[in-house]
Amino acid sequence: MRIAIALVLAFTATPALAGPVTLKGQPVDDDGRVTLGEIFDGAGTAANVVVGTRAGPSIVFEAGQLQGQALRAGLQWSNPQGLSRVVVRQGSASPAVLTPASTATAASGASATAGRPGATVDVLTYARNLNTGDVIQPEDVIWTSLQAHMAPAGGPQDADRVIGLSAKRPLRAGAPVATRDLASPQVIARNDMVEVTYDVGGVKLTVTGRATRNAAVGEPVSVLNTTSNRTIDAVATGPGQAVVGPAAQAARANPQQFAAR
């Protein structure tokens, strides 16, 4: 009986990780490899897990992204202050944490500081090298402080705007994210069989044909009806799916509503 109880306890025991952790008041690192132990107090055996690479004087993490990285390592950070970003700086610099209010101030003051020599701004950068066609995941982008003159004009201010897009060309880790380098991922390839739907006023018709070109969600795609040998001009809405009629206009105007399905 004692052996059975011991086995049950062994299999149900919590892993030897720190569990709940607390964000340090001024997270810093010295070697450019930012670990959970440098960000959180009580990281335990997950302290050496690397969550980012600092290329400049500081690196900025989205709070939600950092929360997910900690959770995957077995740590629980509840973010009781409701922070939107966390900054890890080199050495003993201060202050280190951006609260929601200071984040707004930093964003609004970016243009004012850009002209000052040595001024830095927080820029969304790639956390790893990406190949053409790779789809951006939450862990693929990270906030980094760069010299203002190196920051691209009109760079995305929200990581959610680029997550789910695909790389048009190879992208280098540490490079600033630019929307011109990203596109909606391809969902239809040339010669794919595609179901085209016409749906209006309660009348729904579908026909299946062969795509004559590649297309991402919201992009036009010509589909050859192999029965009638006629070409249908449609708009891609998903893998093997396209629409015509009023729905096509909606898909081109707001492709995100279809990509999220």
Automatic annotation (TrEMBL):
SAF domain segment(s): 121-183
Protein name in UniProt: Flagellar basal body P-ring formation protein FlgA
Subcellular location as annotated: Periplasm
Example of a GO cellular component annotation carried by this entry: periplasmic space
Species in which this protein is naturally found: Brevundimonas goettingensis
Gene3D superfamilies hit by this protein: 2.30.30.760, Antifreeze-like/N-acetylneuraminic acid synthase C-terminal domain (3.90.1210.10)
NCBIfam families membership: flgA_cterm
GO biological process, one term: bacterial-type flagellum assembly
